[in-house]
Amino acid sequence: MKSFTSVSDVDNLEELVNRALRYKADPFADKSLGQGKRIGLLFFNPSMRTRLSTQVAASNLGMEAIVFNVGQEGWTLEFGDDAIMNGTTVEHVRDAAPILGNYFDILGIRTFPGLKNREEDYSEHYLTQFIRYCGIPVVSLESATLHPLQSLADIITMTELSRNGRKPKVVLTWAPHVKALPQCVANSFAQWVNAWGQAEFVITHPEGMELSESFTKGAIITSRQDEALAGADFVYVKNWSSFTNYGALANDPSWMMTPQKLAIANQAKVMHCLPVRRNVELSGAVLDSPSSVVTQQAGNRVWSAQAVLAEILKTL
Ligand code: CP
Q1: What is the value of pTM for the model shown?
Q2: Do 142 and 153 sit in the same domain of this protein?
């Protein structure tokens, strides 16, 4: 693996999941693999899980991780190809990225969509520019359209919890929220579940909240949340803003996940990438019940990151 920005960078998903589970059983099995190597972690947006789990993963591999919260501590970078920089931007990515490539062996980057211009967000302009100019492997810590380290942790979690030989029914259900969020977690989850190929996959959302078909193709899609939930083994709850009416917020409280709704599922395990808005996306009663696996899921972010970093380190 040279870089990690989507499931397309994974040669063998089952092997990657198994590697992650081996690290979970024995975190320091490869404690010298990253010796003498450094990863730079650039955050244009805040993070708790991604930042800390990647730092722990790097440490488990004997690698140093250095965090730069660009969004809070840095100046505004310029990404325009032929920009005349007489405005508010201070440094061009063409100048900054090679320096980062000089300091580090791997670069992790979290960017965020503006949710104003769909074409620009879906071109992954910021991530692509770093990849082009830094000259070292890049790991997406969440991009404008995808969140692959989260999705790998999601697949690890479902693998752990579905060892009864039967294909589980996995339901991704839209949830209300108070602010417009990216589609990246939902896009990415759909992409990875499709690549995993081990589930009956259903996506449910209100009319107008369709995701890009390029990620959802292969899933059953319905606006009947009750029908989708019937017999579900895993229920992944997530808000996203509109893809069609790009970036528009919808906040229909009738879509909040509750114990009453889950009654028709198959004793489903409830997932969410976190952070979660309690009693908006999911009721507290669901989050505090044994059905919720969100802590296990977030814990698996370490093994997800460790498996990916190890794959890249082997190529250096
Ligand atoms: N799920 C996730 O990416 O969490 P953070 O935003 O805290 O990194």
Answers
A1: 0.97
A2: no
